[in-house]
Amino acid sequence: MCAKLHYFPRARALLSRAGALLPQMRAHALRTEPVSMEMLLRPAFFSAAASAGAKPQIETSVSLHSYTHHNRFLAKYKDRIKVFADVGCDLVHGAPTTVTARQALGPQARVHAVDIFPPGPGCCPDDFKAHLHSIVKAPLPFKCDALRLANVLNHLPPHQAEQALRHSLESLNEGGFLLGATHGEQFFLQKVNGKFQRVVDW
Question: What are the respective helix, strand and coil percentages of the chain, to the nearest 5?
Fold first, then answer.
């Protein structure tokens, strides 16, 4: 009986310590490394970035099933993401990737669909707010905790791609994430001390 009385307080103490460590363990799950803006504009970066963290799924078209790794990332870090913007999201066809991002983030996040073409009849205004905006010309008119810039850079000349990246960086809050994709390869960046760092493990 005495042994049991001594055992249970110790067990409770161990469980309490384990519970206190869990948030730290989750925080340490995400690792980044420095990356320059010049490196981000090199085609070789994307194949290297895609090999970091989860292996990318090759996806060449925008559909309801696109960007599965992005959606897994959004679901994992949804507590950090209060405002999300999906840039170049194909508003004309109802912004299908924005719909799946909303599902991954849950109802508590504010979700914005951003494109240079107006929304089509299939758009879902209850799921997100639509914006006509060019990320090449200016940062977003609001700050966000995560921003997707997927299959946009590979359609731009180098000087416009650099502007899009710089304006995306300006649009993010400190610690915010850029979810990228080009040529079907998905990758992740984080804003750290005002600059992008590549997410190498999450």
Answer: 40, 25, 35
- H/E segment holding residue 81: none
Q: Which residue has the tokens 């960086």?
A: 169
Residue pLDDT, tens place only, 87-111: 999 999 889 999 999 999 999 999 9
Closest by CA position to 111, among listed 93, 95, 122, 134: 95
Domains, in order of start, for the chain: 30-201 (3.40.50)
Phi and psi at residue 34, in whole multiples of 5°? Answer: -60, 145
Q: How far is CA 189 from CA 42, 117, 164, in A?
A: 15, 26, 14
Residue 26's CB is within 10 A of a number of other CB atoms, namely: 12
pTM (two decimals): 0.78
